Structures are given as C-alpha cells and as structure tokens.
Amino acid sequence: MRISVLTLFPEMFENFVQTSIVGRAAAKGLVSFDFVQIRDFAHDRYRHVDDSPFGGGAGMVMKCQPVLDALDSIRTDDSYVIMTAASGTPYTQSRARELARKEHLIILCGHYEGMDARINDHVDEIISIGDYVLTGGELASMVISDSVVRLLKGSIRDDSANDESYENGLLEYPQYTQPADYKGEKVPEVLLSGNHAKIRAWRLRQSLKLTKEKRPDLFEKHEFSKEELKLLKELEEEEENDVGDDS
C-alpha cells in the first residue's frame, strides 16, 4: 500500500513513519509513505498558499490552485483521495477496514480557517476524526494512517486485530497480565483457569457489559447473536439480584 500526504508540514511525520507498528510495517515493505509539500506548488515568489475569504470574515483560507496542482502531481487511476475536515463524515473502524483495501491512499491536510470549497469536488471523501477542531489536518492524517496500517496483513497478528475494540461492534474486554495478585488486587479467577471456553464466554460477557455502560450508541445498533442474548439475560438477572440485595 502507498500512502501520500499533502501537507504544509511534512516534518511532522518524520518520527511517525519510523515508530512502532507503522515503522515496522514500512520496514517490511507493507506500506510506503511519501509527503508532498503543498507550498512547492504556489506560483508567487513568497509561496503563499492562503488568502482572505471572499465576502469577508476571520482567518485565512487555503487557495485551490496550489492544493489541486499538488494533488494532480501524484494522483493516478488507482488513487483514493481523502480530505480531513471537521465537516467530514465521522471516522470509524469499519471505514478504516475499507480504506486498508486501497492501493494508493492520498490524504489532504487542511489548515488555516479551511479550504477553498472548490477543492471538495476533487476528493473522494471528507473525513472527520471527532467533534472538535484541530490546528491542521496533520494529526488527523496520522490517526487515519495508523488505523489503516495496523490492518494490513502482516502488520500485527491476525488474532490481535480481530479482538480489538469495534472490530465486532463491541468494546474490547478488560485485559490483565502479571502479577496475578498486586497488593490484593487480583486477576479474575476465570482467566487463570486454563478453560478456554469459559475464558471466551467471560470476555464476550465483559465486552457486552462495557459497551452497554460506556457506549450505549454502539450497543443499541449491535446485532446480537444467540450467545450474546443469553449472556445479556444473565447480566440483567445479576443486576436485578444486586438491586434486591441493596434494598
């Protein structure tokens, strides 16, 4: 996979592409990165990439000419172009899986007050990573790149990717490691039992419980299996018993 980033600050990515899972995937040849400095495509001697908005208003707007010229310099028939913006579609794990299938992903980083709206017609998708505003799209592009690269075959173990939060529509179950007893805080006994069927059921049950408590929006739209419905019933019965004991 090839990921190209159009940015005013390519230096921000130097450590990112060499570190952790992203760095290992690049070293294995699973992904390659290239960074296009948008300012190189400005026509004036001062390499201006922004100007005041027509109609007045605060802030500066990125001009369409340098952005689109930069995009045209690397876009091919296999390219899929993303622009990061607060007005975009909320980013999800399912979208990350779809993007991981692309041959060439181009990510356009916005900056200043925003982009000239004519740029919108030249991208395939506008993505937002959350309901907040960043100074620029560089951090958002790193989030998207990281989430995509870890899904590439060989980046991490398949079972690690499959068990993560959101992969099955639920939050991930709690994880524990050594020591089994830390100052009286003990790991759940079932995880020490060696009974893999019971461990799997416990983990699924915890995922259901956490999702219901922490992310009711995910819980409400989840399509439950027969096993999950059975575990939910058990959880509800336990909650009812707890209420009864407290009264």
What structural class results from the helix and strand content?
alpha/beta
Through-space gap between termini:
59 Å
Note the total helix count: 8
The biggest beta sheet reads:
5 strands, parallel
CATH class wording of the largest domain: Alpha Beta
Q: What is the assigned CATH homologous superfamily of the largest domain?
A: SPOUT methyltransferase, trefoil knot domain
Please give the share of residues in helix.
25-40%
The appropriate CATH architecture of the largest domain is 3-Layer(aba) Sandwich
Please count the beta strands (DSSP E, at least 2 residues each).
10
What count of structural domains? 2
How are the strands ordered across the major sheet?
A: 2-1-6-5-8
Element string (H = helix, E = strand)? EHEEEHEHEEEHHEEHHH
User: What share of the residues does DSSP label as strand, in percent?
Assistant: 15-25%
* CATH fold descriptor of the largest domain: Alpha/beta knot
Q: What spatial form do the alpha-carbon principal axes imply? A: elongated
Query: What is the alpha-carbon Rg in Å?
Result: 23 Å
Poorly predicted parts: none
State mean pLDDT (0 to 100 scale): 91
Overview of this structure, please?
This protein is α/β, with parallel strands linked by helices. It folds into 2 domains: 2-158, SPOUT methyltransferase, trefoil knot domain (Alpha/beta knot); 181-246, tRNA(m1g37)methyltransferase, domain 2 (Trp Operon Repressor, Chain A), CATH 1.10.1270.20. Helices cover 36% and strands 18% of the residues. The protein is built from 8 helices and 10 strands. The strands form 3 sheets. The chain has a 5-stranded parallel β-sheet, sandwiched between helices. β5, α3 (93-99) and β6 (104-109) form a beta-alpha-beta unit. α6 crosses α8 (226-246). The longest helix is centred in the last third of the chain and has 21 residues, at 226-246. It starts with a strand and ends with a helix.
